[in-house]
Amino acid sequence: MPNEKEQKTSNELAEKNYEVSDYKSNSELAKGLATTHEQVSDTYMEGTVDGVIENVEGEDVPLKREHYESRKADPKGR
Questions:
Q1: What segments bear the compositional bias annotation Basic and acidic residues (predicted)?
Q2: pTM of the model
Q3: Long-range pairs for 44-53: beta carbons < 8 A, 24 or more residues apart
């Protein structure tokens, strides 16, 4: 069972919400929220999770995976 300090820290993390400034943050939590927000937003708008978005001409265009690929190479993002 977590002590009071650990519980307080866990509660503070759980209460964190996405903010536009998260994209420019140095916090791993904020960057994660920004990435998740973008993924959810893309999925909601497109109605699919396959990583392909339809352009104005109706053609399927694969989404870039630059951030994901760079994180795989260096999980710390350096």
A1: 61-78
A2: 0.53
A3: none
